[in-house]
Amino acid sequence: MDRQRLTITLSEDTLSKIDGFIDGTKIRNRSHAIEYLINQTLTPKVSQAVILAGGRGLHMRPFTFEMPKGLLPVGGRPILEHIVELLREYEIRDILFSTGHLGDKIKDHFGDGKKLGVKISYLQEEMPLGTGGALSLSQKKIVGDTFLVVHGDILIDINLSDLITFHKEQGTVGTIALTSVADPSAFGEVALNGSKITKFVEKPKKGDEVSQLINCGVYVFEKDIFDYIPRMGSSLLEDIFPKLAAEKQLSGFIFSGKWVDVGTPLSYEKAIKEWGEKDSK
User: Fold this and answer.
1) Nearest to 121 by CA among 131, 129, 132, 110
2) Element (H, E) at 136
């Protein structure tokens, strides 16, 4: 990225406020703080998100025989409600639920979203379509160039404004939020070169891992992503990511906040302990 030196004069009060953003890690110094604040202001706002909530929750049975996984309670609220509230916090208030298994129960709980201060629409899978096929249902409903996608079975503490700004700076079709784990074999593992993802492997065999960075199930996409998704039938985003990586159209945003993929009873217990404590504070 080409840079040019710029000299500006600011009041002491303004500089004091700017210095308040410096933490030595994310914001290294005053110059970095000023650039960060300008980027936050100039980055086009994203107001729409798709939540993928159509999974059958096979590993969470017997809980999911009668309740979709996204409605399982954590800290007194469904997992999906935590996600909606995160999106609302960053003014992403136009939300599309892509539902399947027991989708009517999700619709009954959330309705049109007014009680949570958002607008919710629904896209119902008539048959299991996978993450790619489920996202393709939303193509005609996406109104802007850039939108978020969130898996409906995760809990995550992430600054979405930073994620969106990072994505826009990269100029790629997609950006994946990444975190690190000791054992990536149960997740989508990635290799990075700078900010670009060079390799994506879904659930690598133990011993074949190339890094400990994994896909967290939160993405920022340009509408061009639909050019990579088959128009008909079932497909997986996880199968599309390697092609994007090969074309240098996939970026990785590493974040340090808490994250839980509620895919098993063990991880559900972890979610209850961590997010239940967070909500009680």
Assistant:
1) 110
2) helix 130-136
Q: What residues form DSSP beta bridges with 97?
A: 51, 122
Torsions phi, psi for 133 (to 5 deg) = -65, -40
Q: From the candidates 17, 45, 115, 203, give the one annotated as an active-site residue.
A: 203
- pTM value is 0.83
pLDDT 10s digits, 48-85: 999 998 776 666 676 667 778 889 888 889 999 999 99
3-state secondary structure of 111: coil
pLDDT tens digit sequence for 102-135? 888 999 999 999 999 999 999 988 887 899 999 9
What residue spans define the domains of the chain? 48-280
Burial of 106 (0-12, 13-18, 19+ CB in 10 A): buried
Minimal CA–CA distance to 90: which of 183, 165, 177?
Answer: 165
CA gap 68, 71 in Å, rounded: 6
Q: Return the axis-axis angle of helices 160-170 and 30-42, rounded to nearest 10°.
A: 90
Active site residue 203: yes
CA nearest neighbour of 260 among 274, 246, 250, 247: 274
Q: Provide the CATH number for the domain formed by 48-280 in this structure.
A: 3.90.550.10
- Please say whether the beta carbons of 97 and 110 come within 8 A: yes
Is 156 within 8 Å of 178 (Cβ atoms)?
Answer: no
